[in-house]
Design goal:
Largest sheet: 5 strands, parallel
CATH topology of the largest domain: Rossmann fold
Distance between the termini: 26 Å
Helix content: 25-40%
CATH superfamily of the largest domain: NAD(P)-binding Rossmann-like Domain
Order of helices and strands: EHEHEHEHHEHEHEHHEEEH
Strand content: 15-25%
Number of helices: 10
CATH architecture of the largest domain: 3-Layer(aba) Sandwich
Strand order of the largest sheet: 2-1-3-4-5
CATH class of the largest domain: Alpha Beta
């Protein structure tokens, strides 16, 4: 048997998603090894990394010297700073802030120019494999309806700019309707799923998105509807929130699954 060196993985951002990914790597993902991490507060992060003693905790700019791949789990504004060094070095970036990717198409161009690769996990939604397959033919429409408890939308720039207060909400309220590009700009921390749908299907301007604040929900709900010349399908999913109410628990698991698939001898559906 030929021995293959594991993929050295850095985790950038150690919030709910990043910490889950780091723990899974420390526990063992075949073909991958946790090599380094970065966080806004390195000392506070060290106290939480008891499962990875001795792990290098580094500024973002130093991660590329220690890893073949970075998993970006940070605030959207940091996306270029985190992934650019890896893409320019012809390496791989697993991007969780896919909404920020829509606003930074130059990152995709940089990856292409240097032989780098951007991987966007399925995040909080399934069905992206079927959507990608349908996109090989003709897609007539893609609609995503996202409904979240009010706490899951708190602090969104779109709501703040319009003075929309969800604190006393007693019934479901549609707070946004527009394109995926507009949704990503309006809710950069809340609707990465809309960006993933747009990237997998017919693009950010043709993908339609509705966002609802629903005080009756305890989970994040996404409904994807696709009409194409090969299939018509609707997928609905209700996700338990992570410790961060803006993020579904399954989002971290999708990143872990993406890493597992990179080195697996069998890969299904992606």
């Amino acid at each position: 048997m030929i021995a293959v060196a594991p993929i050295r993985v850095a985790v950038a951002g150690l919030g709910a998603v990043g910490m889950s990914v780091a723990r899974a790597l420390a526990d063992g993902i075949p073909g991958c090894a946790l090599a380094a991490a970065s966080a806004r507060d390195l000392e506070a992060a060290r106290a939480r990394l008891d499962f990875a003693p001795g792990l290098p905790l580094l500024p973002v700019a130093e991660l590329v010297a220690h890893a073949d791949l970075v998993v970006e789990c940070a605030p959207a504004a940091l996306l270029p700073e985190i992934v650019s060094p890896f893409l320019d070095a012809g390496r791989t970036a697993v991007v969780m802030s896919s909404a920020a990717l829509l606003a930074r198409p130059e990152l995709i161009a940089r990856a292409a120019a240097a032989g780098g690769r951007i991987v966007v996990p399925s995040g909080a939604l399934g069905g992206l494999d079927a959507l990608r397959a349908a996109a090989e033919g003709r897609i007539d429409s893609v609609t995503l309806v996202t409904a979240k408890p009010a706490a899951g939308l708190a602090g969104a720039p779109y709501l703040a700019a319009r003075g929309i207060d969800l604190s006393g909400l007693s019934a479901p309220l549609r707070v946004f309707a527009g394109s995926a590009r507009e949704a990503a700009a309006a809710f950069p921390a809340n609707v990465n799923v809309a960006a993933a749908v747009a990237l997998a299907g017919i693009g950010a301007d043709r993908t339609r998105v509705e966002v609802w604040a629903d005080p009756t929900l305890a989970r994040n709900r996404h409904t994807l509807s696709v009409v194409s010349d090969s299939a018509e399908f609707t997928l609905a999913i209700e996700n338990l929130p992570s410790e961060n109410p803006r993020t579904s628990r399954i989002a971290a698991l999708s990143a872990i699954a993406a890493l597992r698939g990179l080195a697996a001898p069998l890969r299904v559906g992606g």
